[in-house]
Amino acid sequence: MASALPLLKRALAWVAGVAALLLLFASSATERFDNALYDAHMRHWSYPTSDKVMIVAIDPQSLATLGNWPWPRAIHAKLIERLSQAGVRGIGVDIAMAEADISHPGNDRAFAESIGKQAHVVMPVFAEAAELGGVLEEILPTPDIARNAAALGHVDAAKDSDGVTRGVYLKAGLGRPQWPALALALYDMGKPEPLQTLPGLRRPDDQPDSPYQWMRDNYALIRFAGNSGSFDRVSYVDVLQGRVPPELLTGRWILIGATAAGLGDQLATSASGINDPLPGVEYQANVLESLYDNSLITPLSLPAQLLLGALLLALLLVLFGMPGFRRSWPVALVALVATPMLSLWLLRRFSVWWPPGCCLLVTASGLVAHVALSRLEQRHERRMTSRLAINDAWWTRGNV
Known about the structure:
By secondary structure, the chain is of the alpha/beta class. Helix content is about 45%, strand content about 20%.
């Protein structure tokens, strides 16, 4: 029985630790710590982009030349024709065209005919409420433009609770996740078969579809190339006026969107932070590049996080008491170093993200509890020894 007691204690400690892990994972108690660790690592894990993606930027130079926004859609039609003549691979347009140009309907027809003739243009789908507190709506291009587009893709940026964008939902839509992300639609266009197995964390199977909710699926973290300006970029007006050599555009995916301040989304990301936000079009460029080089990162599901944490706790409990680990501080040192290192190794080696904060907290709490209980046991043993010594003394004195 005496030999089984340490094993029983370790088993009970493991059960208590797993229960604590489950509560912490489910409550996202260490989310801020995990996000800080992830962001710090991603800021130092940038990479040089390929020559497959280029941004045609609606920048201050273009606004100064072509006038205030929005521009007539006939101008966009001319840009599409320029890009197509240069032999680009595909075009993603991150510009809302949800309302018809009633004053100049010919501009809408020109743009619709242009994208229909080129047959490789993806148009965006937005989700927003018509009024504050109103019912959420899907904002598609005008019917003629939508009908002539080669594909439609959503431009929903996946912001976390702290306002930082770390990932992308590869599928989303009102009622059900029917639309691919704009970058995914562009990536799939022209392929014999689109991606059959998408990366990312799936939504629960029992989550019902709702016509009033924006539904998301296939959440993946993005390995951002770096700060704003990481992708090749040319000015909209330079392409429009023929100042960009066609060979600079040939064979590339082109993303058209705003980079000028005050136009379009400006997103804080895990790589750029709040002080250097990315334009929405560059966010799409990062998603497209990640799809191309297969570098999207899948966050582990709650059961997988719990299983990995439980295995790590079991390993630490087995390690405790072995030669060199008979005291608590060597085990604490191994846990505090090995846990985040395991998380970062999984991130780099297998492109999966396991947040280590909960496991660190449970391990640290367990070691503190172990030290406190050990001291209480030592005090109890000293008191018992003292009492036994006093009783022996009285017994000896009484016999004399």
